[in-house]
């Protein structure tokens, strides 16, 4: 179990990823994203998650550069993730998309590259491209995002590497038990996007009751619940006090009863699209 913000979990290939990182979905390109990334690094975050479609890779790269300099740490101390967008999927176009992301981020390599969504008829070719990038030593780990069990099984067919991570929507209203169990059995690390359900859980009375008991915020309780479920988590924030708050989750532990109460909030409810039914 993670004891501090720099604690990591080891992926199937031996690469270590921090349990907690900063997500930058919907964070505006320019000073907003530069400041968020810089602030996160300043307060001890060592994992930054972006994607081509977020349109903020250049700002993320700038924030990384400034953050590393200010913190006096090396690029190797940071874990950086990006994702290939749906329109760029396919073998050759994925190879190109990876290169484009590197150029925008102004980095020599990524720590993790993901297929953003399982685009029908394309994601297997996309996966072959990721395997190639990985075999060539140009990325430290590869994985997928928004893949159901059947998508994962499909990727296993004819591939030489299993995804090391599956990053999906995960929060107390969508606890994805079956998918989590399958990933665990296959050695695929489970990672949560939208862990706070885009703010929709921050007035939940049950979560508030648990939060009050520990003198914590609902956001901190949810992030702690993720960690105790062995789920890597990337809450998004642009406010300095929230970035700090989201990381202050290592000084308390939820009881078995707390965890069960939170699990019981599940309604299989999504704020994002269903990976079996999306049109973008």
TrEMBL record:
The record, for Gene3D superfamilies, names: NADP-dependent oxidoreductase domain
Question: This chain belongs to which protein, by name?
Answer: NADP-dependent oxidoreductase domain-containing protein
Q: Which domain of life is it from?
A: Bacteria
NADP-dependent oxidoreductase domain segment(s): 24-267
| SUPFAM superfamilies (UniProt xref) | NAD(P)-linked oxidoreductase
Protein residues bound to substrate: 116
**Which InterPro entries is this protein grouped with?**
AKR, AKR5G, Aldo/ket_reductase_CS, NAD(P)_OxRdtase_dom_sf, NADP_OxRdtase_dom
The entry lists its GO molecular-function terms as: oxidoreductase activity, acting on the CH-OH group of donors, NAD or NADP as acceptor
Cite the position(s) of the site with description Lowers pKa of active site Tyr.
83
Q: What's this protein's family per the entry?
A: Belongs to the aldo/keto reductase family.
Matching entries from Pfam families are given as: Aldo_ket_red
| Residues at the active site | 54
| Keywords per UniProt | NADP, Oxidoreductase
